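BUG: 3D viewer hangs when loading the predicted structure for this chain

Environment: internal workstation, default settings.
Expected: structure renders.
Actual: progress bar stalls at 90%.

Input used:
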Amino acid sequence: MNSITSSKKYRNNNSTAGQRQRLINAVKDRGQRGLTTIYARERLDCMHAAGRIEELRKLGWNIATVWTTTVNAQGNKHRNARYVLMSTQKKKVAA
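Structure tokens produced before the viewer hung:
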């Protein structure tokens, strides 16, 4: 188990908060490789990565979207988003 999934509090937690925590841990750990929606679904158990990434952006995280083509576990190609954390510092957001 790595730091992306090691937090006991969020490992088996499919709440939106748990999914956001797994996503932000993963984009931090993966650096410029980022993570795709397929990665989020297959490895982080996050079924709607775009929604969780949007929530993280609203919380002040600077996450870029790069469109890419990825092969899933079944061998099928899909056009999907790759999310890359642009800064490890959160922006201040209005309350």
